[in-house]
Amino acid sequence: MIELIKAGLAMGWPALALLVALMFYFKLSISDPVANKRAVFKTFIGILGAMLLFMAVANYKMNFFAESRLLPVSLVLITSMAFMMALYFTNISALLKIGGFMFFIAAALSGYGNWLPQVEGGFPPIEEKKDFSNMPQTELADEGEKIIFGGVGQNKVQGAIGKGQCPLCHAFHKGMLGERAPNLDGLPERAATQIDDARYHKGNPAARDSSQKESFPGSGTAENAQEYIAESHSCPSCFVVAGYGVKGTNDKESPMPAIHKPPISLSLPELAAVDTWLYVREGREAPSFDEIVKSYEKFIPESDRPKPPTEGDAKPGASALMADGTEPVDQIFSKGQCVACHTIPGIAGATGTIGPKLVEGTNAPLRIKDKEYKGKAKSVPDYIMESIIEPSAYVVKGFPDNTMPKVFGQKLSAGALKKIVDYLSQVQEGKEPPKTS
Fold first, then answer.
1. Which residues, 6 or more positions from 432, have their beta carbon under 8 angstroms from its beta carbon?
2. Number of helices and strands (H, E) in the chain?
3. How far apart are CA 71 and CA 61, in angstroms?
4. How confident is the model at residue 67 (pLDDT cuts 50, 70, 90)?
5. What are 343's strand-pairing partners?
6. Distance between CA atoms of 64 and 297, rounded to whole angstroms?
7. Both 162 and 289 in a single domain?
8. pTM for the structure as a whole
């Protein structure tokens, strides 16, 4: 007996409990096998149930803050315990079966939710109230870099992107190609020559061969380099650099949105910070804050000027998200700038060629089976979600890695991501695309 107890202690208390139950079962079966056999077996089942419950609680405690996605295991263990005990405790069998069924449903839903690719939650950063007008140029330039790239020193980081979303279209360093928009290296010097281009029609906007003649009626054209930069931001289609127009428009229409309007909505002080960085990063003296703001006032009427956030109305995520999920899916594609990089059947203006054509109902199953695939997706929706959040998990042949920014998991809400996934899951090559509403 003592040796058995020692062995049980070495194996742990669950094993000891089983040994004790077996000893009582053996003893009582000899003294009165008919009366005691069922009672002892019920005790054995009860101990087994207690062990399952203990394991469920232990698993829940260990994995509550972990990333292993094992929390549903606790529900599975409790479900097993409930159905097992219902077989031997007939007086409360119905109650145990109902409870077991409820835990089974909860385990199934929880398991499916944990199986899906996870999107990091939490509030986007609160926009701070800042007085750009009184900042030294270097500090103002730092703010401009934050708006463009999301942080100071991020301008050489592949995929870095800030509120302005500029790196989605432009390159900023010599030798780097900007396939959707011109490289902005050397822009301050180049801007002065652009206004003398014959196609620009300086002083005569009516003669322009473009989809938009003026930023607004009566605004006129740029007279100097800074005004040219301001006009380019407020009215991208007023003058399109050769080779960078929307396909099929003969460079009469730009794919770039006016960045003082939604979804980007930079205020005039923010635009001044961006322009200051464009000068300072090249070691040049930038125009003063007031001069830059005045150049934008020429091309943006007061009614169209976004107001900078104030302490009273600053809200978490007020402008940090590209799309919050309340929009129709075609607007989400547009706000996320997907349309400029990808061709998406059924989405107006989605004719980009920088990224692959998004017929994911056809492509995703083939890519998951590709030996080059490094991701974890097992289904079409999982693959699409993964390709948005972790674009390097599978790089489509013919398209370089790290072209797509890795920030859309934070820049698009969970609702917006779901609408994108639901839509693209239905898009198949050669078939009618789904409706956008």
1. none
2. 16, 0
3. 9
4. low
5. 351
6. 54
7. yes
8. 0.56
| Cβ-based neighbour number of residue 153 at 10 Å | 10
Q: DSSP 3-state assignment of 412?
A: strand
Helix (H, G, I), strand (E, B) or coil at 404: coil
Note whether 289 and 138 are within 8 A (CB).
Answer: no
pLDDT, average across residues 23-34: 54
Looking at this protein, which amino acid is placed at residue 354? I
Instruction: Say which range, 39-53, 83-97, 218-232, 323-337, has the weakest mean pLDDT.
Output: 39-53
Residue 133: which residues within 8 A CB-CB, separation 6 or more? Answer: 269, 289, 290
Number of independent structural domains in the chain: 3
Side-chain-facing half-sphere of 55: CA atoms under 13 Å: 18
Residue 400's identity, in one-letter code, is P
Rounded distance between C-alpha atoms, residue 246 and residue 259, angstroms: 17
Where does residue 20 fall: left (phi above 0), alpha (psi -120 to 50 degrees), or beta otherwise? alpha
Report if residue 318 sits inside a domain: no
DSSP 160-177: ---TT-GGGT---STT--
What does the pLDDT read at residue 18? 55
Q: How far apart are CA 126 and CA 67, in angstroms?
A: 27
CA distance 1 to 7: 10
Q: Can you read off the two tokens belonging to residue 227?
A: 């005004």
State which residues form the domain around 104: 2-115
pLDDT(6) > 50? no
The reply to whether 97 and 137 lie within a common domain is: no
Alpha-carbon gap, residue 221 to 237, rounded angstroms: 13
| Residue 175 falls inside a structural domain | yes
339 and 214 in one domain? Answer: no
Domain presence at residue 403: yes
